[in-house]
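Not sure how to ask, but would you mind making up any protein sequence you like and the tokens describing how it folds?
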Amino acid sequence: MVLLIALFLATQPLGLAGATGPLGDMLQVFGTAIPRIIGAALIFFLGYVLAKVAKKAVEASSRTAISSASRHRSARLRRPIRRCCRVRSMASFSR
């Protein structure tokens, strides 16, 4: 690319319009494409940063939910079991 720019600049003072015309058009098209390339790179970078932030937020909320669920489960397991283990006396069966 640098060689093409140097060739364009070297042939322009010589008045070789036939040689510099297509080359100048190509450099002009490339020059108009540069802002679009920079814009696309900026959008890609912002999307990447946003995805990283979203990933950290989801990981943090899932860690919170998992720790909360495990605390709730362990608290539930420590409660005494009353309903399912009542012992009936033999007198209640004879009625």
Notes: The chain is about 80% helix and 0% strand. The radius of gyration is 38 Å. Helices lie at 2-11, 17-78, 90-94.
